[in-house]
Amino acid sequence: MAWTSPKTWNTNDLVTANDLNQQLRDNLNHLYSLNNSANAGDLNANLACYSSSPVQIGTYSVTLTTVGRPVLLIFSATAKSAAGGTVYFQWYKSGSPSVALGLPEYSGLSTLIPVELSIVHQVGAGTHTWFVAWNVATATAAELYRPVLFAVEL
Question: Residues 86-115: pLDDT tens digits?
Fold first, then answer.
């Protein structure tokens, strides 16, 4: 919804429902319409990782067409390391090297741990796609449950 230039009000002006809709509702809708993208994928999925090099988590990604403002990227999931090892997570932008330092997560054998990795990434105007990659320490395996990726232009 487009922005409507506010009316100049005078004493004793009658305020109608149309005035309120146009001057308040429509302009508030314009201000609060955030440019965002989310990918919750299959919330019943059980993903496994055996790689010691970063690999994309399934086919999960978020795509956003921006006007050039910073983008808040949020990833959350629940992870478990089968051998009580370390699992690493890192945001990547398609076609580019990583955009954030990784986040190591430590898990005892069969212990579920919450994972949350948020960054603010400055990009130019255009369409951009991000994904999260993960890897495990040598000779370990990891499982991931309910991954969610979210992007919003600030």
Answer: 888 989 998 777 676 666 776 666 788 888
Cβ contact 82:143 at 8 Å: yes
- Judge if 61 and 100 occupy the same domain: yes
**CA angle (125 as vertex; 120, 129 as ends), nearest 5:** 60
| Exposed/middle/buried for residue 33 (C-beta within 10 Å: 0-12, 13-18, 19+) | exposed
Instruction: Enter the tokens of residue 109.
Output: 């054998």
What is the value of pTM for the model shown? 0.73
Determine the Cα–Cα distance for residues 87 and 89; give it in Å rounded to an integer: 7
Quick one: which H or E segment has residue 116?
Answer: strand 113-121
Token code pair at residue 88:
């690493």
Q: Is 25 in the same domain as 78?
A: no
- Domain housing 15: 1-33
Q: Based on the fold, state whether residues 23 and 78 are members of the same structural domain.
A: no
Q: Residue 102 and residue 140: Cα distance in Å, rounded?
A: 18
Instruction: Provide the number of structural domains found in the chain.
Output: 2
Residues 6 and 45 in one domain: no
Q: Of the candidates 41, 45, 50, which has an alpha carbon nearest to the alpha carbon of residue 75?
A: 41
Same domain, 18 and 80: no
